[in-house]
Amino acid sequence: MKAARPLPLRRLLAGGLAFSLALLTGCWDSDPVWTDSGAGFDVPSPSPSQSVPVTISPSPTNPVESEEVTTPPVETGLLRYARQYLTAEQQEAYDRMVEAAAALESSFTWTGLTDQELGQVLRYMVVDYPEFFWLSSGYQTSTTQSGGVPTVTLTFRYTTQPQDVPQAQAQVEQVAQSCLSGVEDGWNDYEKIKWVYDFVVRHTQYDGAYSDQSLYSVMVYGRGVCAGYSRAMQYLLNSLGIPCTYVSGTARGGSHGWNLVMADGEYYYLDATWGDPIFTDSSQQDPDLVGYDYFCVTTEELTRTHTIGDDMPVPECTARACNYYVYNGLELERYSEAAVEAIITQAALAGEDAVMRFTTGAALGDATTILIQRDGIFDILARVARQVPSLNANSIQYSTDDDTYRLTLYLQYTS
To answer: What is the pTM of this model?
Structure first.
């Protein structure tokens, strides 16, 4: 992303816009796998946010009483996306493993699957159940053979002490209800997804020091990394009946996690972590600022910056109706002075910055040439200021994003 800079024009606000948006990567999503040798963990290469056990403690401002562990019903279908890619026998083992993990059993035994096949069942279950935040995808196995048929005992790895889980569940549920209680009857899928997305972004501060890969740190402490953002999104949206799963891969060279979500029967990608901007000048940090460049995007749009991992099959996402810019009439196929003026007017009436996205880099280039290099923006600002007298028509700052073809105009207002 280009750093925002002031326009080199006739009427200029002194000083540049002192921030740049850090797109957050480096979220580690590989849990160590136990070996049978007794040598301990087979630890992957170092990462700035490697998974470690989670310490549970009551929130001092919102204490909750300890409750019994909640055992969810075994579910199938779109809300448990990964399950469909297992064999029939693996699905049967998956269903029983859900019950064992919910009951905080120390191990799980199955006859007829190899240790690798049972390990895949665990990994897919962990993907499908973000509410099992106390359970790692790391495991240890022991195998016996009888008549050529393996019986495998898989020992779970818990990141939270079993006796602490009921209290931790209550803490998570308390925060979840503070979000979900704001959802209104009659909202469509887009509105529900945006509500949860805004909640998670505004509730959370990205913090690589929180290496917890579950939703717990994000939900309870409001701090975490990409896996936490994504699993909180998944848990909250699934609670609303919106199918959402966790997807891992890389983004700009770093490990990263995001979501695949279904809206109105179509799949989209969603990256809440990249909707939470980090300012290089912390004095300008705005906790309420939300970015929407990766809100319900297509595969083509996502893969300009993200590489999807091969953990499980994912669909080709082509729908665009629930994309933030499309849904709100902020996407333009080509530069149009009337369309740009309408977007600026709408933003000025709300006292906000004007954000628009173009469908191609060429269209974005045309817009910046006309508005910025040829001073066209000032004629538009002068007309809009007649409707919004508080708008400063004599200065403007802007930024562009060459990956998403977004143009942001930082409007100035007088008090």
So the answer is: 0.83
